[in-house]
């Protein structure tokens, strides 16, 4: 074997001066080709509070939408289980007219069981409705990244897409979800 063949086997052909990538590339390549400028300490705290307030408001709106959808979809289960527990003699044993004439202990037990049996499919339906609505309205795009508080010049995500009206343009009426 020649000396050249031995050198090829001994080590990598990379030089010691090859350039390594110092870190991850910027989050958004179009906007941040240059390094961004950091905010002052007071400005950083103020923007942190603003971003946290916006994210908390978006979370609250998402939670209220989720709770209202679940309340509407699970209303039959709530009503059936309520009447079952209200008229059963070992639970509440109400003196209402319908408890004395229509519902006895066996029918109250049947209502309780029926309510808990239909709860599972209705939870799936409620979650599918919420996920479909959240995707169409792009609700999760309203959350803002924390880098907005640290660096200057980071735009609001919904601002670039046309604001609230930009969400309506992105609606796709042909979207179907299989559950």
UniProtKB/TrEMBL annotation:
Keywords: Membrane, Transmembrane, Transmembrane helix. Its main location: membrane. One of its GO terms (molecular function) is PDZ domain binding. It is a multi-pass membrane protein. GO terms for cellular component: plasma membrane. Residues 1-13 have a biased composition (Acidic residues). Residues 1-22 are annotated as: Disordered. It is found in: Membrane. The keyword Iron does not apply. The keyword Transferase does not apply. The chain crosses the membrane at residues 57-85, 110-131. Belongs to the TMEM88 family. This is Transmembrane protein 88B.
